[in-house]
Amino acid sequence: MGYNKIKISTEPYGYGSSSLIISKRLHKYFCLNEKFYNSLIYNSLWFADPHTYNDPFDCSLNYDFENTQEEIVEFAKSILKRERRDMDSKEFEEKINQIHTDHEYCREMIDFAQSELIKGVGCCCLSEIDDSLLMWAHYANSHQGACLTFDIEKDMECFNRPFAIEYYKKYPKVNFIKDRYFNGVRYSLATKSSEWEYEKEVRIIKDISTHRPPLRERIAFNKEALVEIKFGLRASHKEIEKTKKVLKDIGGYEHVKLFKAEKKIDEFGVYFVALNL
C-alpha cells in the first residue's frame, strides 16, 4: 500500500471484504458558482438525493428474486415488523397471516422495500484523480471551475463511509433478499456502467433522513481536511481572486494550497502551478 493510500474497515457497511484501500486524497470538481462558495463559507459538502443523478442507469439495478417461497415470506415479515409503526397488534397479525397466503401482497412488500432502500440517503461524489480532462470539462464548467482536494484522514467523521464505485458492462447479479440492507445499498449506490470508469469515483454516503430542510443535504467538514484548491485552465483571474478573499475572510483556511492548471506541452493533459494565497 503506497503512502498516498488508506485502508478503511468496511465490515460495518456491507462490503464482501473487511477493508477498502482508496486514495487518502479525494477530489471534488466544482463550477465556480454559489454552491462552490457556500462549500467554503460553511465548510460543508452537498450530499445529494441519488435519484437526482444525471445517469438514468445510476442507482437502478435489476435485482433477481430466485428465492424459495419461505425466504420471500420471511423477508416480507421482516419488512412488516420494521414498518409497523402505529399498527395495533390485531392488524399486525392480520398482515402477517396475509403474507403467508397472498403471494401478491408479499411482492408488494418487497417492492416497497426496494423503493425505500435509498430513501433518506445522501451521496457526495468524489474522485481519486484531479487531472481528468473529461471531468474538468463536465463538472467544472469546461475547465472554468475548480477542484477541492480533501485529505480524508483529517476528518474521518465526514468521510467515514466511502464506497469505491465498481464498474460493469452488464448488471451484476444481485439477489435483493439475500443481499439486502447495507449490502443492498452498496450495490445500488456503488455500481455503474463501465463507460464511467474514467472517473475513478468514490462516494461518501450519509443517512440524512433526520436532517432538517433547507440545509438537509449539507454536511460539515473539518477545515483542516481541505488541503488544496486547483483552478481550471480557463478559470478567470476575477474568480480566483474572489476565492482568495473568501478564504481570508472566513479564516481557518491558511493551510490550503492554491494551484492553477496549465496545458502540458507534449501530451494531452494538465499540470498544476502553485499560486499565492
From TrEMBL:
A Pfam family reported for this protein in Swiss-Prot or TrEMBL: DUF2971
The protein's name in its UniProt record: DUF2971 domain-containing protein
Annotated organism of origin: Solitalea agri
